[in-house]
Amino acid sequence: MTVLCKLTRLAGAIFLLLSCLPILQAQTVVAELRAEHDPSKRSELALDFADTAFDNARDYYSKGEIQKGDAQLEDMTNALNECVVSLAAARKPKFYKKAELKVAYLQRRMQGLLDDIEIQRRGWAEYTERKLDEIHDKLLDGVMRK
Question: Distances in Å between the alpha carbon of 116 and those of 13, 56, 64, 102, 104?
């Protein structure tokens, strides 16, 4: 199989995964991510999913649909945890740095989201912010390991 064919199949799989994201439950997403055998690719898919889940959460919160926004933040957290597990399996420090940068960006975006949410409705979002801090710390540990 040529490289172009492999890239085409991967792009198709990513497009299919991203188009089905709003429908998938957290456990199904983790199962879909685990279907990818290459841990480094699995970590990249998890990062892409986490970014999309955050965008969906922001949309739901702006519409006032707090429970759906909370569910999307939970999906984001599950995907990022799967990313950490995948990176540990890959054992390649260079992938940790990319993931750490993306999670740091998600942390900044999360702070902006918290600023937009009413104080009474921040419960799950604040919990997610603490989880993002823990995940970021794990990724920093991976970056520092050689």
Answer: 34, 15, 11, 21, 19
Cα 33 to Cα 37, 50, 122, distances in angstroms: 9, 11, 29
In whole angstroms, what is the distance from residue 105 CA to residue 12 CA? Answer: 26
Cα-Cα-Cα-Cα dihedral sign, residues 25, 16, 48, 119: negative
Contact 136, 104 (CB under 8 A): yes
Q: What is the pLDDT of residue 21?
A: 47
pTM above 0.90, yes or no: no
- Residue 52: its pLDDT value, please? 92
Domain residue limits, the chain: 3-144
Distance (Å) of CA 76 to CA 8, 69, 84, 92, 144 = 26, 11, 13, 23, 24
Helices (H), ranges, the chain? 3-19, 26-35, 39-63, 66-90, 93-116, 123-144
Q: How far, in Å, CA of 111 to CA of 105, rounded? A: 10
Query: Which residues are within 8 A (CB) of 77 and not within 5 positions of it... i.e. 6 or more apart?
Result: 128, 131, 132, 135
